């Protein structure tokens, strides 16, 4: 489309290039061809050149239509994903609100009736209703957390202090630890929540007391530095790795299938990675958290 066109005509259409030519400056501009088209894009580079005998300008043009289209497609996909995410968040919030509003009077009435009935069978029935109400409320709250952006407050954390809080929460499990001298860069509240979920998962997988070990270590890959946290257990291992992080999926009788999904959501929001695998010795599994460190 440019071959055979007079330079003056092109420069009239490209004022930024014309100014650079006039001043002898270096510049890079992007234009649509023709101006009313969104399908053909041209990148124009103006580069001064000179030697001991003469000076001039080198003007290079390059078709960047594919690059532009790819960028526009990526932007459109991001906008569509954001719109879908916002719609999903509104739906989850509305659903959670309605379920809680329905469960609250049921739970209150159940508690009131427990003090008025004498039959053991009726007491057991009311207790079961109360338990299921609480179970559903907990489920709704935890599921809603999967769709919330986290407001993180990263800071330097002592692995030893973090582990002490975990042992206080699980006194009967006799948690073991290594690498307590390590310093971690993470949000204290959310990292602790992720670790609690993973330790609970290990307990529910049948890991005996004293068999769960939390290992803190440093990681270096080229110029990238970070930390790793391993939760190694002695339970039954992973039976179905393909569905590990699928919400609602659980192989445990009382499992909601939310804990691992929520833990991964937390770690990814912190810029990290969470993976799970069976131990090489065939006993139990290992949850691996990889976190980055500030430069």
Give an overview in words.
Helix content is 44%, strand content 24%. It is an alpha+beta fold and 295 residues long. Helix 5 crosses helix 6 and helix 6 runs antiparallel to helix 7.
Shape: elongated
Tell how many strands the DSSP assignment holds.
Answer: 10
Helix count, DSSP H or I runs of 4 or more residues? 7
Mean pLDDT: 82
Estimate the strand proportion: 15-25%
Main beta sheet, described?
5 strands, mixed
Rg, nearest Å: 30 Å
Strand order across the biggest sheet?
A: 5-7-8-10-9
Low-confidence runs: none
**How far is the first residue's CA from the last residue's CA?**
49 Å
Q: Tags for this entry?
A:
44% helix, five-stranded mixed beta sheet, single chain, 24% strand, 7 helices, 295 residues, alpha+beta, 10 strands, elongated
């Amino acid at each position: 489309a440019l071959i055979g066109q007079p330079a003056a005509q092109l420069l009239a259409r490209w004022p930024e290039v014309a100014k650079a030519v006039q001043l002898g400056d270096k510049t890079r501009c992007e234009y649509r061809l023709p101006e009313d088209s969104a399908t053909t894009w041209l990148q124009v580079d103006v580069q001064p050149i000179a030697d001991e005998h003469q000076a001039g300008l080198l003007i290079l043009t390059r078709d960047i239509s594919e690059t532009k289209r790819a960028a526009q497609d990526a932007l459109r996909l991001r906008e569509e994903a954001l719109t879908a995410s916002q719609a999903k968040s509104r739906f989850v919030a509305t659903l959670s609100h309605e379920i809680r509003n329905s469960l609250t009077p049921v739970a209150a009435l159940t508690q009131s009736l427990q003090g008025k009935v004498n039959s053991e069978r009726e007491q057991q029935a009311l207790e079961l209703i109360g338990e299921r109400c609480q179970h559903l409320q907990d489920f709704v709250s935890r599921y809603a957390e999967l769709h919330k952006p986290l407001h993180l407050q990263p800071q330097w954390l002592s692995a030893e202090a973090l582990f002490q809080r975990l042992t206080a929460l699980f006194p009967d499990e006799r948690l073991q630890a290594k690498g307590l001298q390590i310093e971690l860069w993470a949000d204290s509240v959310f990292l602790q929540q992720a670790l609690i979920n993973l330790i609970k998962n290990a307990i529910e997988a049948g890991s005996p007391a004293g068999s769960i070990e939390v290992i803190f270590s440093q990681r270096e890959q080229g110029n990238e530095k970070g930390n790793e946290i391993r939760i190694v257990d002695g339970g039954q291992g992973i039976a179905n790795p393909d569905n590990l992080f699928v919400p609602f999926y659980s192989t445990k009788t009382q499992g909601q299938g939310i804990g691992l999904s929520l833990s991964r959501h937390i770690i990814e929001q912190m810029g990290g990675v969470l993976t799970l695998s069976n131990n090489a010795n065939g006993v139990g599994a290992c949850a691996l958290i990889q976190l980055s460190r500030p430069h």
